[in-house]
Specification:
- It is built from 8 helices and 15 strands.
- The strands form 3 sheets. A 6-stranded mixed beta sheet has the order 2-3-1-4-11-5.
- A hairpin with a 5-residue loop joins strand 2 and strand 3.
- The chain folds into 3 domains: about 120 residues, D-Maltodextrin-Binding Protein, domain 2; about 90 residues, D-Maltodextrin-Binding Protein, domain 2 (3-Layer(aba) Sandwich), CATH 3.40.190.10; about 70 residues, Alpha-Beta Plaits (2-Layer Sandwich).
- It is an alpha/beta fold.
- Bound molecules: adenosine-5'-triphosphate (ATP) and magnesium ion.
- Adenosine-5'-triphosphate (ATP) binds next to helix 3.
Amino acid sequence: MEEILRIAIQTKGRLNEGSVKLMEEAGINLVIGRRNLVSPAMNFPVEVLYLRDDDIPQTVAYGAADVGIVGENEVLERGEDVAIVKRLGFSRCRLSLAIPQQMEYHGKEWFSGRKIATSYPAILRKWLAENGLTSEIHVINGSVEISPGIGLSDAIFDIVSSGSTLVSNRLKEVETVVTSEAVLIANHALSPARREILDELIFRLESVQRSEGKKYILLNAPNHKIGEISAILPGMKSPTVMPLAEPGWSSVHSVISEKDFWEVIGKLKRAGAEGILVVPIEKMIF
Ligand code: ATP
Ligand code: MG
């Protein structure tokens, strides 16, 4: 029987879109439409299992799925024995402690003897112990941010990304405990055949990630300016230079990153580059 790698992803929620997009970018066409529990891929030996994010670490630890895409926060909270094989760079957030805005805060001691509402008791308990604090942990699933306002707790320990939920509940973030992003986790005892499929998947994901924020640039330059122009271009290797039909001119190709894009373009123009063309890159294979 041909080996198939089973990947657990979130059915719906903040991780779903990024997870599905990642599969697509890796060239894995999922049979979607109906929300089946398991959906096979048409052109790659994987199948996708749709789950609540809470259940993904355990499902992978027990081997009901071989790998999974889940928030690092959930991996830390569950404490299941899984390997983090790749950080994926989406669904970034942090787990923080927040207290009512009007309260004065001079340090972690504030939490001593207070009641903290959270959906992440394990991570919080560890942080409290590390800081020698004794607080009461009140576990609630969902709408943690309203609990100080209704007198259920003195503080909260919850997911923060922009901080707007805190502001609208008149809370302020005072301690960041962990940062998180989506991660690819794997069972520790994959068969060699499945490990091979996972390696191919990781290779594809890395090719996509490498191209993120990168652009391919083509420009024309008089031959005597090529040295100066090459020095401006921070490509992977030296740029590609090809003669144009017009004598004394060449076409120069390279890769630049989006973040210093305008600065590089300005320098190139001043150095005599003409007909600059910038095109997107889908994948970069090394
Ligand atoms: P499920 O129904 O699968 O249990 P959920 O309600 O527990 O879903 P979501 O709100 O969909 O969870 O969030 C899933 C994960 O996305 C979180 O565990 C966290 O890693 C990340 N996340 C949560 N909130 C944000 C946010 N505001 N910005 C970015 N990432 C976030
Ligand atoms: Mg959940």
